[in-house]
Specification:
The chain is of the alpha+beta class and 309 residues long. The chain has ten helices and eleven strands. It folds into two domains: 170 residues, 2-Layer Sandwich (Ribosomal Protein S5, domain 2), CATH 3.30.230; 129 residues, GHMP kinase, C-terminal domain (Alpha-Beta Plaits, 2-Layer Sandwich), CATH 3.30.70.890. Strands 1, 2, 3, 4, 5, 6 and 11 form a seven-stranded mixed β-sheet that branches. A four-stranded antiparallel β-sheet has the order 8-9-7-10. It catalyses: L-homoserine + ATP = O-phospho-L-homoserine + ADP + H(+).
Length: 309
C-alpha cells in the first residue's frame, strides 16, 4: 500500500460555447500539483504551498471538502495530509477549484488501492464545487477526471457522464485580470429561454458533439456559438466581442467565454495558429489597459494522474 503520492490535475474549459453546464475539455497544462500522504490520524489537514491565500480549513477548502466526502465511504480509520501547489490561478475560469478537488480525490484513490470508480470520484469532487460557487456542477470536474472531451448528460438523479476523445486541437486562453465570481455570473442568467433560441442552441450542441467525433473542424467552428449564456454574461467581460473578432481573423476555429469567465478560449488547428491567436487575444486587453495572461497549449488527453510516489 502506498503511503504518499504526487498528482498533477489539469485546467479545464467548461461550457465550450453552447454547452452550458454540460461540455468540458481537459487542457494539458496548466495544472495543480497535490501531494497527499495517508495518516493514522483521522481528518484532513491542508497546506497551500502557493501565494493565493486560499482557506486551509478542510471544511472551507475545495480539496478538503472533496476528501471529507470520500472519507465517509472509507471504513478504515485514516486521514490525509495534503500539500497543494496551485498552478492554476483561482477565479480564472479554467477550472481552478475543480482541479484541486479532483487532484485530491485521485490521489486519495491511489492511496486506497483505486477502490473507487471515476464516476464516484466525480461525485466526491463535486462537493468541492458547491463550496467554490454554490452549484453542484460537474462540467469542469468531468474532464479533469476523464481527460479529453466530456458531456455531463445528467447530475441528478444519477450522474451520467460520457467521455469522448477530442481530436488534436490547440487552445489559446487569455485571462484578463478582472474579477468575475462564478456565483455572480450565474445570477445574470435568464430563468427562461424562448423556444426559438433553445432550438438554435441544441442544434449547435448536436453539431459540436458530431464535430468532435468526426474531427470536423469547420463543423466545430460553426457549432460553438452560444445564444443563451454568453449574451447575458457579455457585459461582465470587456473586450470579448473584439477578442473573438481578432482571434477569428488570426485563424481560430472559434471560441467563447471559458466557463463563467473572465477567461476567453479559442480552439485552433495548429500550435502556430494558437500562438498567433493568443497574441491577438492579448492585444485587445493591452489596448484596454487590463493586465492579462495568455496560455497556449494542446488539449489534454489524460485527466488528473499520479506522477510520482
Ligand atoms: N458551467 C459553469 C458556469 C462553470 O458557466 O457557470 C463555472 O465554473
Amino acid at each position: 500500500m502506498l503511503n504518499s503520492v504526487l498528482v498533477h490535475s489539469p485546467a479545464t474549459l467548461s461550457n465550450l460555447g453552447c454547452g452550458f453546464d454540460v461540455f468540458g475539455l481537459a487542457l494539458a497544462a496548466p495544472y495543480d500539483t497535490i501531494r497527499l500522504t495517508r495518516s493514522p490520524e483521522p481528518g484532513v489537514r491542508i497546506q497551500h504551498l502557493d501565494g493565493y491565500n486560499l482557506p486551509t480549513e478542510a471544511t472551507r477548502n475545495v480539496a478538503g471538502v472533496a476528501l471529507l466526502m470520500l472519507l465517509q465511504e472509507v471504513p478504515e480509520t485514516i486521514g490525509f495530509d495534503v500539500e497543494i501547489t496551485k498552478g492554476i490561478k483561482p477565479g480564472s475560469g479554467v477550472g481552478s477549484s475543480a482541479a484541486s478537488a479532483v487532484g485530491a480525490v485521485v490521489a486519495a484513490n491511489a492511496l486506497l488501492g483505486n477502490r473507487f470508480t471515476k464516476m464516484q470520484l466525480v461525485e466526491f469532487a463535486m462537493a468541492g464545487e458547491v463550496v467554490a460557487c454554490g452549484a453542484r456542477h460537474a462540467d469542469n470536474i468531468a474532464p479533469a477526471i476523464f481527460g479529453g472531451f466530456t458531456v455531463v448528460r445528467a447530475v441528478e438523479p444519477v450522474l451520467d457522464i460520457i467521455a469522448l476523445p477530442a481530436p488534436p486541437l490547440w487552445v489559446a486562453v487569455v485571462h484578463p485580470q478582472i474579477e468575475v465570481k462564478t456565483s455572480d455570473s450565474r445570477k445574470v442568467l435568464p430563468a427562461a429561454v424562448p423556444l426559438g433560441l433553445a432550438v438554435r442552441q441544441w442544434a449547435n450542441v448536436a453539431g459540436l458533439v458530431a464535430g468532435f467525433l468526426t474531427a470536423d473542424y469547420n463543423l466545430i467552428g460553426r457549432s460553438l456559438d452560444d445564444y443563451i449564456v454568453e449574451p447575458a454574461r457579455l457585459p461582465l467581460i470587456p473586450g470579448l466581442a473584439e477578442a473573438r473578432k481578432r482571434a477569428l481573423a488570426a485563424g481560430a476555429i472559434g471560441g467563447g467565454i471559458s466557463g463563467s469567465g473572465p477567461s476567453i478560449f479559442m480552439l485552433n488547428r495548429t500550435e502556430e495558429t494558437a500562438r498567433a491567436v493568443g497574441a491577438a487575444l492579448g492585444s485587445v486587453f493591452a489596448e484596454l489597459g487590463i493586465a492579462f495572461n495568455v496560455y497556449v497549449g494542446p488539449v489534454g488527453t489524460e485527466g488528473a494522474r499520479v506522477v510520482a510516489e
